[in-house]
Every structure is written in structure tokens, then in C-alpha cells.
Please model this.
Amino acid sequence: MQIKQFSGATIDEVLTKVREELGDEAVILQTKRVVTGGIGGFFGREGVEVTAAEGMPAGEGERANLEAAASVAVAPPTIDTTDASAGDDEAEAFVPTPFGRHLDTRLEAAIEAEATLPPAPGGAPAASPAAAYARAGAPFAPGDRERTEAIIEAARAAVRDAHDAAVEPAPAAVLPPAEMDALEMPPAAPVADPRPAARRAGRTGGGTLDGVRGELVRAGVDPRYLDPFLDGFVRSVLPFVGPGDGIRDAMRDHLSARLPVVRDWKARPAGHTVALVGQSGVGKTSAAANLAGGYRAAGLTVALIAAGDGPHDALEAHARRLDVQLFRAPDAATLARLRATLVDRDLVVVDTAGRSHQQLAGIEGLAALLGPAKIEEIHLVLPLATPLADLGDVQRRFRLVGVNRLAITKIDETRHLGNLVNVPLRMGKPLAYLSDGTSVPGSLAPADARRVAEMILP
Model:
């Protein structure tokens, strides 16, 4: 006996296919409504699926077909979730999921509630979309707005009920008054706080933590970088501050211990090279001359290199006055050769022309100039009063050059010293040198964390 499965939009269309292939003696073994496409079975195309077989006696096939058509016409819609890869004999009718059962319950409740409502004006029943959908018995036409509203309304109600059931607290057990009195404990005696009164009030001899924070903010330390410092201070240092100690002193120690500065000042090997880069007018040439002059005054061998095109008159004047040998390197190849030639010097200092961080081509040219020389230290020179808003752009552009140190100049030109903390934290590079003027030599010194902390929090 041949068994086949047929599908179509309507039962008439499917029965026509059955008769054409299996003849009038075919018997309908199974009928069901299916929804294909859509999302989760909703808003898809509805149709009918029929499993039929040939070989029924004459007359019984027609009766079976009519019964199957009637069953499909009045049956509620179902969604086919069977595995399409399964065999024909494994196809099962749709089994409602817990949510499907809950949805059916909501629709039945809507019908019952509607039956108790007074009739609407004009004698028409005030039916909700959900009740109309359930009472109809057969699905609405695909795309029918009323069917869509009914599904959405019922689904929302099901979700609300499930949520309410999940969050509804269990009723609290109430004990009789006598048992409550028996369980009541007498109030505990107050325990003396072992901390000194000044500590309990958040104070020591050095003021309050809020006062110290305000002082640092007024000095120009940005709260974005200050507050993490304070949080670490409160968690790791404040619990051990004694009653006679000062919070300002403890905070100064904490700041100096954690400020990113170059702390390893071991002797540099011969031929060690330092390059200074930055924008025009930030004090690069003065810093380069100061660095070379300090080494020369200490009796060490030093060389200055003026890298890149353009005049270097100021550097030439400093070199003559300091008795430091000066070389010119107009291009990358010359700089690399000089770098290899001067390996016997205690220090080689490379000064570069100013480059604006807003001119990408200039920054790329500077990177191409310094790259082949493989310079150990490349210092970005910044004046102390550099706006914080510009630091991000400066960092991104000069990172192309390979900056790994910071030199802060013109400290004497502002009373707001907070950038001594803001700049290294924002740039992610340690402070190497600080300069408080333009005098050569004498205005440049290695960055000292303790000195910085005392400058910001005197």
C-alpha cells in the first residue's frame, strides 16, 4: 500500500492532489494544520498537511476524505514542530509546550470573562480580540490584524503572570505574641570604638581626607586621576595612620610612592642615545642643551645631534658655549650612521625640530627620521600648562614616533602643578625630567617623585 504526504493552503486543494495521485479509493490517515515561516510560528503562512494511503474499498475513501476535511475545518490551529528530517511514520501531532498550555488557559479565561460582561450599546457583545480569536474555532486569514492583536495580548498576559508568580514573596510566618516575647533579646551594651576620637571623626593632626582632596583639586589634579589614588589610600594606608600622624603627610608619601617616574637611574652604557621630540616652543632645545651640559660638566663625553632639515641656530649657540661637539643629521640614513659612529660617547642627545600633533604628515616624517637609528629613549617634551583636552590627541600622534619617556618644562610659568600627576597618568609614560626655566645649564633635573609630591602638596 502506498502512503504519501500532501500539503496545501486549503483542504480542498490537498484533497484534489490526493485524488489525482492515489485515486478515489485513497484513505486519509492523518490531517493537521501547519504554519510555515514567520517567527516562532507566528505571522507565518497557514496550510493543511494530509497523510493518505491508497487501497481503500470503493466508497469508503470518499467518506474518509469528507471526515478529514470536516476535522480540519473545525480544529483549532496548531504549529508543526516535528523534525522535517524524520520519516513519515515518525510524524507526530504538535504537543503543547508549557507556554502553549498557559496561552490556551488565558484564551479560555478571556472567553469566560467576556460572558459576564454587560452587552455593548446596540446589543453587540463586547468581545476582546483574544476571546474572538478563541471562539472562532478556525484561524483568521493570514495577516489579519485581529488575529495578530489576539496573539500579542494573550502572550503579554502570560508573560506578566509568569513574572508575578516568580517575584511574589512567600507570606511571612507570624509567631504568636507569647513566642515573640520569649525570643526577644535585651539590647546589647554599647561597645567602645577603639579608634581615637579624631580618627572616628575622620580627622588626624593633618586635617581631613576631604580637605586634602580639595587641596589637590585646587592644585589642578584632575578628579579622574585623583580619586583612584584616594581610593587606594583609604584602603591600604588610612587604616594604619596613627592618631599623631597627619593625613597630608601620609597622602604625600602615598603619592610619591605611586607616581609614575623613571626610578632606575643606573649608569647608562656607552653610546646611550636620548632624543627629544614635541611641538614648537615647548623647550626641546633648552632641555637638550641642559642634558648635554650637565653630562659635560660632570666630565663625561657627550655629543649633540641636530636631526632633520632646517636651521638649528639655538642649539649651535648652546653647543659652543657648553663646549659640546655638535653634529648635523638632515636625514634618517645620516642619523643612523652617526648613531653607530658615536657609540664611544657616554651620552648622545638628539634634538629635533618641532612637529604639531595636528599635522600627521609631520609626525610620520619624524618617525621615519628616528626609526632607523634605534634610539633607546625618546622623550616627549610638554609644557606643564598643556590643556588636558589636548593630551589624548598628542598621545595618539606622538606614539607613532615611539615615545617612552616624558619631560615636563616651564614649571615656573604656572602655579597649578596638577599636570605633574595628570600628564604621566593620562599618557601612560613615566616622568623622566623636569625643567623650571630656560637657563642652560641648571634648569633641568631628573624627575623625583618625592619632590613632585611636595610641590603639589606642600
User: Anything to note?
Assistant: The longest strand covers residues 27-36. Residues 3-90 form one domain. The first helix runs from residue 11 to 22.
